[in-house]
Amino acid sequence: MSLTVTVYRGLTSNGTGRIGPIDSPATVYFYLLSSSAVWARDFAGANGSVGFSAGVTVSHLRIDILSTTLTEKNFTIELRSPSGDVILADPATATVSVLTSPGTIGWMPTNSTPLVDHVTSPSLRLLREDGVYGVVTVRWSLLLLNSSSGGMVDGVSPTSGVEVFADGVAKVDVVLSPLSGTVPRPVQVCTALLTSATGGAVLPDASDRDLLLRQTTVVVTDSGSAYGIIQLASDNSSLIVVRTALSSSPFDAHCCRMGTAIRHTVPERVKPSFAILDIRAL
């Protein structure tokens, strides 16, 4: 972080009115004086001079801010030893105060919904705005959307975590990886929710001016076998619907009640490219 200080020559302190000559070159020296903020620890910059060419009324000097603290600290810039057609006028000193905060942490908004499928591992980005002081953490969880019981999310890892922001760090990425398995599961629409933060950091609310999000939507694709498995019998004359572990649809529930397998016989003479089956128990 750097600070730019403006120095005027031949102008009032607000830089609007003329109060002296500007036709010749001029120079003024400046000094950085430690106070509660200490040189080389809280700020950096060498003592030096600011020069003005003929006709120039504005010049700048830059100071690097090294630390950002929860407690306000300050140091002083002092102008001395002018040369040329200038004299020092008030104010010839300026006090610089250094103060920031641990910041606000939230999900970065995106134009598309992250999708976790069999081969894709999307990342969700956490941003730290309005201050990067100190080490802070944020806790998050992946929850099924519209689940009154806060149901568990399957097929993705991790489903919760604690992310650490080191001092001065403004972004952290959370990678969601797909998990393989044999248990059938449907599509899951989830919410990645920030639940708490430490170290003085805060979570965004609806009025957050940086538009950070406290929660964002993630979609986990189905396992490919969530709604039953249809197999063709070896004699090519019947279809077998194998029972699944789920009963999330009327079809699944019916299969489960009827037994582990339901067979529908297709006459030899019928070879349709598709059919609406009237499934009955044998």
Folded structure, characterized:
The chain is mainly beta and 282 residues long. The chain folds into three domains: 2-98, Immunoglobulin-like; 104-220, Immunoglobulin-like (Sandwich); 227-282, no CATH class. The protein is 3% helix and 41% strand. It is built from one helix and 20 strands. It has a five-stranded mixed β-sheet with strand order 9-17-16-11-13, with no helix packed on it. A four-stranded antiparallel β-sheet has the order 4-2-6-7, with no helix packed on it. The protein has a three-stranded antiparallel β-sheet with strand order 1-5-3, with no helix packed on it. The protein is elongated. The chain starts with a strand and ends in a 17-residue tail after the last strand. The model is unreliable at 242-282 (pLDDT under 50).
CATH fold-level assignment of the largest domain: Immunoglobulin-like
Query: In angstroms, what is the radius of gyration?
Result: 34 Å
Strand order of the largest sheet: 9-17-16-11-13
Distance between the termini: 77 Å
CATH architecture descriptor text of the largest domain: Sandwich
Report the β-strand fraction as a percent range: 35-45%
Q: Could you list the spans in which at least 5 consecutive residues all have pLDDT below 50?
A: 242-282
What is the overall shape? elongated
Regarding quaternary structure, what we see is single chain
Number of helices: 1
Helix content: under 10%
Number of strands: 20
N-to-C order of helices and strands: EEEEEEEEEEEEEEEEEEEHE
How many separate domains? 3
